[in-house]
Design a protein that fits this description.
two-stranded parallel sheet; Lipocalin; 37% helix
């Protein structure tokens, strides 16, 4: 999104956790009387969304997760048969205009290693949540699996289903294996494929931004740290609290938060940051959203 905006294109990024996301609708057997009813509701949402996009001919729209990952996730968790999921998603994807669309498919072939990485990076609370959610699912019950092995089984089948869907229908598909998690290299390669340039710039003297910050006297503190020439948020209360969030420099003390629709601007006095301001691009499903000014302690 930042690269498109920097190139002068009007851009709208729909992040996965955005509140009131126009495509966010998961399969819930306790609500949806039949799978057909769920598919009909999805088809209506997709068509309305695509019609709105078609009217905004000068705007680039980026959708994160809800055209593939999340619908597949909810149906697989409910133990919908694999072939049914592929057929349903292939039908929905046929609504997408091929000439004006592209798919960026980021995968990791070693699924257990990928699962271990996202559990470790998001912390023990999220690891427990992911395992327990899977253990309670119809997916796990039908296969007699549980624990970390059951979670690996789920994401292995999820990836196989996504592979099958995109093999059938994906327009202008770009595949990237991100197992090495070399994000600077992956980012540069992806932007080159779309004829775009890196939107962020080097920021000198990152040390002046490091320190502890908090919203007010009663709030917990979080840290801004420097590691190997990168600036990171650590312990920020409303992102993945147990994971470091990289700040991507946009210039003049302004940073984008990696993978989240927010920017951070540092106020610098006498060569040292005294506060930082968080600005939201749109509201995500975490309350309260961290927009506001945080003082250095």
């Amino acid at each position: 999104m930042l690269a498109y905006s920097a190139s002068g294109c009007e851009t709208r990024w729909y992040s996965e956790l955005e509140v009131d996301h126009p495509l966010a609708y998961v399969y819930r057997p306790d609500r949806d009387r039949t799978l057909d009813e769920y598919v009909t509701a999805c088809r209506t949402r997709w068509q309305h969304f695509l019609d709105d996009c078609a009217r905004e001919t000068e705007r680039t729209v980026i959708v994160d997760a809800w055209l593939l990952q999340d619908p597949v996730f909810s149906m697989l968790l409910a133990n919908v048969e694999r072939r049914q999921i592929v057929d349903i998603m292939s039908e929905l994807w046929r609504l997408v205009p091929r000439a004006s669309s592209a798919v960026l498919y980021l995968t990791q072939r070693d699924v257990p290693a990928a699962v271990e990485h996202f559990c470790a990076s998001r912390g023990p609370r999220m690891r427990t949540f992911y395992v327990e959610r899977n253990d309670r699912s119809a997916f796990a019950e039908a296969r007699g699996v549980s624990g970390p092995a059951g979670l690996n089984r789920f994401w292995t089948e999820h990836r196989e289903i996504c592979d099958a869907i995109l093999t059938d229908v994906a327009p202008n598909r770009i595949d990237k294996d991100v197992s090495a998690r070399n994000w600077p290299s992956v980012t540069a390669e992806v932007l080159a494929a779309f004829d775009l340039e890196l939107p962020w710039r080097n920021e000198d003297d990152l040390e002046r931004f490091t320190g502890s910050y908090r919203l007010d006297e009663t709030a917990a503190t979080f840290d801004v740290i420097e590691r190997e020439g990168r600036l990171l948020l650590r312990g920020f209360p409303f992102f993945w609290r147990d994971a470091d969030q990289e700040l991507l420099p946009l210039g003049s003390g302004l940073f984008a938060v990696q993978s989240w629709p927010a920017t951070v601007r540092f106020e610098v006095r006498a060569g040292v940051a005294c506060s930082l301001d968080v600005t939201e691009q749109h509201r995500c499903g975490q309350a309260p959203w961290p927009a506001g000014s945080y003082a250095r302690t």
